[in-house]
Amino acid sequence: MMPDRKMFWLIIRRIFASNRARLLVILLALGAGAAVTAALLNLQVDAKRRLTTEFRAFGPNVVLVPKNSLSTASATLPESAARSVPSHLPAGEVRESSALYLVADVSVPSSGKATSAVITGSNPFGFVTTFPRSPNYTEANHSAENVCVLGVRVAHQLNAQRDAELTLSASSRRESCHVGSFKETGGPEDDRVEISLGAAQRLADLPGRISAIELRVPGTPGAIQGYVADLQRRIPEADVRPIRQFTEGEAKIYDRISGILSATVGLVLVLTALCVMAAMTNVAMERRNDVGLMKAIGGATRRVLRLFLAEAALLGLTGGVLGAAIGILLSMWLGKAVFGIAARPRLIVYPVTVALTIIVAIAGAYPLRRLANIRPASVFRGEA
Amino acid sequence: MFLRLVADSFSRRPRHKLLTGAALALGMAVATAAISVSLDVGDRLAREFRSLGANLVVTAQADSLPLEIGGVDYRPVNAGAYLPESDLGKLKTIFWRNNIVGFAPALEVPVEAWTKSSQTTSTPAVAARTTLMGTWVNHSVSIPDGNAYVTGIEKTNPWWQVDGRWFKDGAEECVVGKSFAARSGAKIGSALNVSAAGVNSSLVVTGILSGGGAEDDTIVAPLMMAQKIAGKAGEYRRLYVSALTKPEDDFGRRDPRTLAPADYDRWYCTPYISSIALQISQVLPGADVRVIRRVADGEGAVLTRVRTLLWLVTFASLLAAALAVGASSAASVIERRTEIGLMKALGAGSGTVGFLLAAEQLLLALLGGGLGYSLGILLARLVGQKVFGAAPQFSFLVLSVIIGLAAVVTLLGSAIPLRRASRYEPAPILRGE
Fold first, then answer.
1. A130: three-class secondary structure by DSSP
2. In a domain, A247, yes or no
3. Domain-embedded: residue B367
4. Is A36–B316 a contact, with Cβ atoms under 8 angstroms apart?
5. Residue-number span of the structural domain to which A303 is assigned
6. Which of A180, B49, B86, B408 is 20 to 30 A distant from B429 in Cα terms?
């Protein structure tokens, strides 16, 4: 048995060494297939996860309000309720902000202009998404206590400039602040003045109370639903409401996008495998002469076949190992190009891709089985 | 003679040609499917994103600030400015009129509302204070060009669900938010009395609305009813517009006032949200059109990412298909060393041999590419049908790209072995060395 095995490997080595061009061609086909497979498999999982994070560009998707807040708009929650919001999820951090709303008179002492407006006291300050892309957005120094952010329509009404002093008054209480920046969102924020939560609580005379908590919950639509149910159990005194406009819209869009991604990736993988297989079969078919010769000098059909299948498997292994490595690097680059963060390489992808490549290579060589009933003589006569 | 040689090569070794052709067809099918899906996905997804509702809001420039907390506006009815309803048909006359998928005006009136049952049951007969919002549902607007366009709140706020049915346009009917229904005892079919500033009217509840926001505590009625109750005939306060847009890029975010005339035309003729907003403000005098950044920017961010992602996937699969096809055609040339040697021994020049083989490969590319295209289109249709319920549009561009790609890839794949083949000395090959 021993010399037999030695002979086997000797022949395999010779096969590889004999035709470099051919070897390169096969490795190219297998490697390309493996690279795309690895890249797409790695990217697919990562892209779906990233998308759910990306959806948070829509801003808060869950809001906590006091029970029955609708019938009595003055109902409030204790500020401590925000502390019972679990902030770690497998999909990422939950970001939260507390807000207190009140109606107050806003005036600019220097020009004497005044109007009534809704004041939002928020903590952390400046959270209710400021859209950096909006052309009218200017970065403010949010650290100072008496800075406020003016909605564009309020600013228009008061004709207030940046750094102008504002006086806010509700009943007999007063607060003053200076305009740090403007905000244009197209939403209710445009009509409001945002100040720090502490200042709003003093103005409303409601220390330690808030009107709402806004949350940005990352994760798939299903996970968000579970989170909402869990939160409702933890904070029974509040009404936990998903913002349906976004949760439902996102769920629909997420389904579509992940559907199109899976379908495209699946399609590309299957076709790539078939394509590589066809190329491999083409290469394998030209071995008829070699098979004929081996049989003529006494090689048993099984041994000859084993030889060629081993060759295919080895090629698959090499092509797979090289291709998958390139593919994972490719997917990291793709992730960086699309989402700005390199896709996390998943180790499971590597062996799966290599195994798939070997299977494709062997399946491509399998038609050689039909060469078993080749008559050596007819091959040598040059008959097709 | 040339054609005979080509025909002979195809008929003599059908299986080899078939396999090379199959690899080619499959590779091109990958490319076709990926390109078709990528080309189509932007428009389809943009349409999907409209399930987030309106992305533009229009208010009167002279309007006062709403004092709205939790869906209740603390502003008196007479404060502020209104816009005329009769102008709304002009929205469908702007340059990007076909991109406007829906719009709905809204007029909110603070009202007191009560049902018969809330007066007779054990609960005290309280008139609940709430907001009545007048709007359109399935409303037919006449457009200045003579046609009519049907639109309404169900297009701009598609996440609103109504148990029962929506009210009929102009009828004395309404739907009530589910929280309001719970606290006022209003049910489908019951009569709701509404009063504001001394005007009393009675509306029949036709449905219970659930939207998950402040609307759950309001009454939604036909715009005409709200105008009657508020005494503001033919006027509205706010308009929601849902428009298909192209995500804003750096060019789209530039201030149109600073653009050169040629750039301005390009900006104006691109469906950026800001250019649609400008076009709307041109047809609605006195209106202030604002972009709902939360919807528009979020959509832009996600759409841009998904588009880039799919293009990169397409590119990667194109690369793989090209390599596999190239390898396959290289293999088919390599195996024909003997034949090439024989032809050269019989006096053919390197150029002639190369030309013959290239012609064969091109013919194969044409056949395989065509076959792969049809296969790919079929698969793309399948994907489109399954995911979006609509097949992608046929595009002549894709066909020409695919055939061109097939030709380039096969020629490139066979170029290297062909170059080597042209340097073969016939004698050693024929001797079998």
1. coil
2. no
3. yes
4. yes
5. 2-53+253-380
6. B408
